[in-house]
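User: what does the whole thing look like in 3D?
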Amino acid sequence: MSAYDFTAQLSQASLSAGPRPSEVLQINLTKLCNQACKHCHVDSSPARTEMMSRPVIERCLEILAATPTLTRFDITGGAPELHPDFRELVTRARAPEIDAIVMVRHNLTVTYDPHPQTAESMDWIPDFLAENAVEVICSLPYYQEYFTDKQRGSGVFQKSIKGLRRLNALGYGRKDSGLVLNLVYNPIGAYLPAPQADLERDYRKELKDQFDIEFNQLFAITNMPVNRFRSDLERRGKYDEYMEKLMGAFNPTAVDALMCRSMLSVDYKGQVFDCDFNQMLDLPVELAGKAADVFSFDESRYSQRQIRFESHCFGCTAGAGSSCGGNTA
Amino acid sequence: MNYYDSEDLNRFADVGKFRGELMEKFFAYYGAVIDEDGALTRREKALIALAVAHSEKCPYCIDAYTEKCLETGSNPDQMTEAIHVAASMKAGITLVHGVQMLKGLEESGA
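Assistant: Here's the predicted 3D structure for the full assembly of 439 residues, as structure tokens:
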């Protein structure tokens, strides 16, 4: 058993964290990305080839249409825009038959790099997102160049600024436009995020003063000790220190809003998970002793599942709590 | 043997092995000063502590407050300016003693 036992921590704090009706359908459309970031828990890169198949996409849309509690459709990757069916998927999810709130995890640079497999221009992305009123969530690890480029690669900051300006020009992040632009901060290293409200205030001031950029909200997300970030910690002999930091910062009030409790996470093969991190660690939801998938999905059974907690879950309960939508406590 | 070992910071509380009540008072005072927002924010206090850590040349504190500054939202420019404040104070403190030297020179007729 791991020295970092999340279930034991919950018991010790007399807390339970059972599932609730699913509110967010989050799908990992592809592991392909134009970038290869240091912190990426998906291990995405231009060399990855995993793509969600057509039958899985169709089934996800069916589930979205048939499950009244699932009102938010969160499309992630990789860079999801690189999937050949991305545009059709978004258009159909936004159409009146489904009318979901569609969120896309957009890395800002994908617009300016050629498609890693086909070399086609991706310049269509901002206009397409605006036309479909897609909620855009962009990772910008810092409001300064140094930290951003250190984490995401040389030149990423300037390209991201260009991308944000273009989104602003389309109305994103501007008052009363109805086009939502949220940014994501995550620490460059093995430390916890600063208070989200303080960071948001700094981002708002610096991005406005330096670049005339506006946005709606900043989400502060804790780095999860999985995949690439965990390997980096282990290589530097810092894994245990980081885990102890997360455990030491355990915040019982963050348990109530753990994102896994109301999320349906689907991988490119159609397997079903409690969250994106469990997906990356290949810890599928098990129903009646079998790994669950979208083809056998049934919300009434799913909302009775046992959530699979592992040591990385301490990342979601440390400090002010962390989720794909920022702080939870 | 190393005089400074980063692991030793984890043993800080062991200093309370004897006269533990004094260390308890110290930790309560330290926590109240550093870890709570007051007239100064935790972020401002962490920057002051980082500057003091450098001027006092404490490797434990430099590690701890580099991290604390990041976790309270300071950026590398602000952290570097803080240690320049410490360095410039040190330089000023050294130089202002030059008045003593000048007085000595004056007394000796120079």
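In plain terms: The mean pLDDT of chain B is 95. Chain B touches chain A at residues 43, 67, 70-73, 75-77 (CB under 8 Å).
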